[in-house]
Amino acid sequence: MIVSKLPDIGTTIFTTMSSLAQETGAINLGQGFPDFEPDPALLDLVTSAMQQGFNQYPAMPGYLPLRRIIAGKVQETYGRTYDPDTEITVTSGATQALMTAILASVHPGDEVIVIEPCYDAYAPAIRLAGGSPIYVPMHAPTEASPGYSIDWGRVRGSITSKTRLLIVNSPHNPTGSILSGHDLDALEEIVERHDLLLLSDEVYEHLVFDGLVHQSLARRPALAERAFIVSSFGKTFHVTGWKVGYCCAPAALMREFRKVHQFMVFTVSSPFQVALAGFLTHPEHYLGLPAFFKEKRDLLAAGLASTRLKVLPAPGTYFMLADYSEISDLSEADFSIWLTRTFGVAVIPVSAFYADPSAAESNHRLVRFCFAKKEATLQEAVSRLTEL
Fold it and tell me: Rounded CA gap, 357 and 332, in Å?
């Protein structure tokens, strides 16, 4: 009989809420994927690539022209030069890149700092590598400071001689917060004092609003030289089902990354890589994303303002948090189920992104909405929620 390596992993709240949405006919603003199609030009490029014969294995680290374009994009956007031959690998989605980086760098007995709430794939990957996740909670929203922020004092206090890796995520899922220059200053101070590696989840790098700028770790040499930096074409170009992402890292780190990558997936679908290489030659496709998603964010925020939900700031990602404390004393999970059944709009409890979702300190009466939806979808959801 098999002994589970992940005994605590069962049906996630994401699966539960999506099933409930289907069962009740609710509008699903819970899961983070668009309900609209990608640019037809990108689809045409995939078809063209197939017809041109790009149907066999590409190079293990990825289609070289795509890696070269990624290198140029990162250099132009963040000022960091990565060698496409030795420092960039195309992956089967960002989640594979995250797991590969963790398996490549974490050894049995190592500790990994995980700042919560956080994406639910981090901890299982750490455990599979034989490491231990060390959770550090963010500052939760208050009346005076309505957004989430990192408690760098607690991060510093959690570092021990066993700390191998620190994971950061910006723009942040689920809170929509973003790192500032001051956050990078704090992180630089940490790496100056402690010999640890960094894993930066930057899949929403192009979804930053209100004139703000994404603070990639690639902007700071002291951080970039010890960091795996991960991004996602699925999030950027509305093709989450393609599962194509990439990782940038210094050559010494990337060598170890590729050792795991080649035996995990070996390589990634050829026609998708070729198509993305062609599509990326037009930077307007990603430079226009802030305006595109800001319109959707503002539409949902304005609609929720007509309810008793209190919308929190959403400077990044395509997620928005809302406070329901004026409506109910239910836990976040119970409130999400109640809202779905009663008003036909599915959301995700923010507590689901904590190690212990049922703990009082994981419940701040907040739920997450995804606004990567058609205008008509958002308007219908708002129409239903005005009953609140």
Answer: 9
Distances (CA, A) of 107 to 120, 228, 252: 20, 16, 17
Whether 306 and 365 share a structural domain? yes
Contacts of 338 (CB under 8 A, 6+ apart): 328, 330
Q: What share of the chain is helix, strand, coil (3-state, %, to 5)?
A: 45, 15, 40
> What's the CA gap between 20 and 161, in Å, rounded?
45
- In the structure encoding, which two tokens stand for residue 353, read together? 């992104």
Overall pTM > 0.85: yes
pLDDT at position 304, please?
Answer: 97
| Cis bond upstream, residue 133 (ω within 30) | no
DSSP string of 104-139, one letter each residue: HH--TT-EEEEEES--TTHHHHHHHTT-EEEEEEPB
Residue 56 Ramachandran class (φ > 0 left, ψ -120 to 50 alpha, else beta)? beta
Positions of E strands within 31-96: 88-91
In the block, which residue shows the tokens 């170890």?
Answer: 256
Percentage with pLDDT > 90 across the chain: 95
Q: Return d(Cα 48, Cα 206) in angstroms, integer.
A: 27
* Adjacent-strand bridge partners of 114: 135, 167
Domain boundary, last residue among 251, 282, 313: 282
- The continuous run of DSSP H or E covering 197 comes out as strand 197-201
What is the rounded average pLDDT for all residues in the chain? 97
Distance, CA of 311 to CA of 305 (rounded, Å)? 7
At 13 the pLDDT is 79
Span 91-144, pLDDT tens digits: 999 999 999 999 999 999 999 999 999 999 999 999 999 999 999 999 999 999
Cβ(367)–Cβ(332) under 8 Å?
Answer: yes
For residues 332 and 275, state if they share a domain: no
Per the structure, the complete domain to which residue 302 belongs is given by: 13-31+288-385
**What percent of the chain is predicted at pLDDT more than 70?**
100
* Model confidence pLDDT, tens digit, residues 315-332: 999 999 999 999 999 999
Of 282, 310, 331, the last residue of a domain is 282
Residues with Cβ within 8 Å of 384's Cβ and at least 6 positions away in sequence, in order, are: 27, 343, 344, 345
